[in-house]
C-alpha cells in the first residue's frame, strides 16, 4: 500500500514536519556524546496522531543531516511518498525500528548505536550487572542481552521486543551487534542510549580491577521506584 | 518555616544574585572536564552572609543552565520563596548538600558527580591508594570510601560528613554511587571533583599492569604540608 | 624522469587541483576522529585521468594544511615539478602509498595512521578477530597483520599489498607500526581508517573481561555481501 | 643578585617579549592534547641571547594565560624584576626547569605534565619498552624512569638530568610523579610531551592483552638515525 504525504490532514502534515525537525536535531546528540563514528547510529520517533515514524536516511553523515532529508516511514518500514523525487532511502535498521513501533504501542522513540562499551558487553553476550545507583535509577536492574540476529528480516526487531518485554530496562544489547534503546519519545530513547554507554563504561572499568559489589534487589527496587516518580521537574515525566 | 527572598537585606540579595551567577558558570566545568553525562552532576555554594546555599535545579541539562534557574535553599534543604512562580525544584541531591553545609561550617562549596573512574572505584568500595605526588598534594593520602546509602533521608549526607571528618581528603567516594567533594568555596570543590577523577583514572590505569608503588607516609605528609601552604599565588589560598 | 605539472593537459591540471583540495580537506578527519597526534598520519588520493597521486607534505601539522601545500607525486613516489620553488617534501610514507597505487590499480585512496588501538594490536602482531556485525559488514572478516618492515625501500608497500591481496579487509595492521587502509577513493580509505580504529577499540575492550564470541563464517559472509551491495543510497557505492 | 628587566639591551628585551608570546601560545597545546587538567602542567623556554628563561605562573588556568602573565627567571630559578608590581610567582616546578637549563646547555625548552598514561607507568616505576616504530623514531629506545624526588630543592632537576644524560630519549618519567621532556626549543619539548603520552597509552593498551613484541636493537638504531636526519622539511630540523 502506498501512502502519500499530501493525503494526510494539515495537522498530521504539521506533526510530520515537527517530528522531522526534532529527530534531525536529536541526531546531534550521538556524536556529541561519542556514541557513534561515521554514520553508524540512528534515531527515530513516532509521529503523534499518525501511523508513521521519522528516521535517519541511510549512510548520511551526522553533519549533513537536516529536517529535510529525514525519511518518513509507515509502521511496516515502508518509505512514504512525499513528492520529493530524490528522497533518500531510510536507515538500513528501519525494519527493526518499525517492528518495535508495531509491537510496543507505548514506545514513541527508538535509538540504535554501536557505542563502544555497550557493544563490548554485547560481543561477550554478557548482561551489565546492576552495581551502580544510577543503573538502579535508570534501568531498574541489569541491562539485558538480546539474541544474535541477522539484518534483513524481522529477527532484530523480534529480538529487541522479546528481550525488553521481560525487563524494566529501556536498553537491550543485541549480541555481537550493539545497543537499541526505547523511550516514550525520541529524547527519552536518546537519553537511554547515552546512559547505557555510560554504565557499560563505568561497570567495565570497575570490573577490570576486581568485582564490583551488587546492590541488593530491594534497594534497586526502591531506587527505581523513586527515580521514575520523583526525579526531574513536576510534569516533565 | 518559609523564607522569602525579598525579606532579605539588599546586601544579602546581592550576595544571592552573585552566587547564582557563579554557580551557574561553574556548572560548565562539569561537561568540559568530562565529569558528567546528561544531567547527572551538580554544584552548590553557600551564600556569604546568609544561612542559604544555591544549587542546580533537578533534571535540567548543562547547556540550559543560567543564573536565573539556579535554586536558593535553606540549610535544611528547603527551597525558598523568591517570587518566581515557576521556580524549578532543586537537585534531587539537595538534602546531601544541605547536610554537609549544616554540619561542616568550614565548607563553602559542594560538588557531586558520577565521574567514570571515581565511580568505578566506588562500585568496588575500594579507596584510591596514594601513589602519586599529585594525590599527596591535593588529597593528603588515600581517597576514602563512604557507606552505601539510599537517597531520600539524611543517610547520604551523614555518610559524607562522617567519612570526610576522618580524612584530609576533600573527596569521598560514596559506595556504588559516586564522588562528593567539598571546598572552601564552589571553585575549590569543583577543582577537587576534577582532581579526584584524574587520580582515580591514573591510578586505575597504573594498576592494570601491576602494582604502583606507595609513597612513604612521611613524604606524603611533607608534600601535603608544602602544597597547602606554598602553591599558587600569595593570597589566593 | 622529471614530470612538470604545467605540461599536463588543462583537464589533468584541473583534476590535480580538485584532488589537492579534497585531500587537504580529508586530513581534517584524522584529528577529528582522534586517529593522530601531532603530524603522524597521512591521506593520499590518485588523480583521476593521470598517473599521479596527491599526498600530505612531511612534518606539517594538520591545522596548517591547505590545498596549496599538498604534494603531487608520480606512481614511483617522486615529487613532480610544479613551478612552486619552495614546494615541500612529501610524507615520509610516500613510497608505501606509491607502491600500493602501482600494484593495486583498483585502489584510489590510501590512509596511514598510528591510531592507538589498531597500533596496540599491531604491536602484539595479532589480527583483530571478527566478533562484531559491523566488522563483518566493513571488513568481511578479521583485520590482518602485515610483516615487520623498515621504512626506506619497498618493504612496507610490499607488506601492505601482499597482506591485503589475501583478505577482504581494506585495512592491514603493519607489525609494530600501525594501520594502512585502502579504498576506491580517499574518502573510502579514510572511512576504513576510522572504522578499523573503532573495531580495534571495541574488540580490545570486549576481550579485557573475557572472550568475545566469534560470528559464524556463514553469517559473516552474508553480512558482508549484503553491506557491500545494499547499504547507503543507490548509486553512491 | 637582582636582575632588572629594563637593564637588558633592547634586543634582549625583544627576545624576552617574543619568548613570552611563544611560551604562552604553546601552553594551549597542553589541554588541546589532553595532557593536563586544571593547572597541572607547564612549559618553559630559554630566551635566546640571555641567561634567562620564561615559564608559566603558578596556579593559573590555561584559558587565563597570556604573554603578559608569563614569568621571566634567571637560570637559578629566581624571578626577575620587570617593573610589574603584581608580577605572579613562577610555577612551583621552576627549580626543576632551571636546573635542566643550567646543566644541559643544549636544551632550549622543558615541559612538565602529569599526563595520564605516562604518569601511570611512572607510578609503577617501569620504563616504557620500545615496541613501536614511532618510539624508535622519536625516543630511540625505551622511555626511562627517573628517581623518586621531593619538590623543594635540586632533587627533581638532578634526577631529570642524570636520567636523560644516559638515554637518547627526550622524555623521563619521574617516579610517582610524571613526565618531564626536553627539546632544542619549547616546541620540540611540547612535541615530546605529546608523543610520550601517546606511546605510553599505545604500549599500555597493547600490553593489556598480551606481550607486545620488542623491535630488534639494530632496527631501533636504524629507525632512530633515519628519523633524526631525514624526517620533516629540509632545514627545519
What's the quick description here?
Chain A is 40% helix and 12% strand. Chain A is of the alpha+beta class. Chain A binds chain C through residues 37-38, 40, 57-60, 88-89, 92, 114, 116-117, 119-121, 123-126, 148, 150-152, 175-178, 204, 207-208, and chain C through 33, 131-134, 191, 194-195, 198, 201-203, 205-206, 208-213, 215, 219, 222-223, 226, 230-234, 236-237.
Describe the structure in your own words:
Four copies of one chain form a homotetramer. With 237 residues, chain A is an alpha+beta fold. Chain A has a single domain, classed as Class II aldolase/adducin N-terminal domain (L-fuculose-1-phosphate Aldolase), CATH 3.40.225. Chain A is 40% helix and 12% strand. Chain A contains eight helices and seven strands. Chain A has helices spanning 10-26, 29-32, 94-103, 116-124, 133-139, 155-165, 186-208, 217-230, and strands at 42-46, 52-55, 71-74, 109-112, 145-146, 171-174, 178-183. Chain A has a seven-stranded mixed β-sheet with strand order 3-2-1-4-7-6-5, with helices on both faces. In chain A, a hairpin with a 3-residue loop joins strand 6 and strand 7. In chain A, helix 4 (116-124) crosses helix 7. The model of chain A has no long low-confidence stretch (mean pLDDT 93). The A-C interface holds A 37-38, 40, 57-60, 88-89, 92, 114, 116-117, 119-121, 123-126, 148, 150-152, 175-178, 204, 207-208 and C 33, 131-134, 191, 194-195, 198, 201-203, 205-206, 208-213, 215, 219, 222-223, 226, 230-234, 236-237.
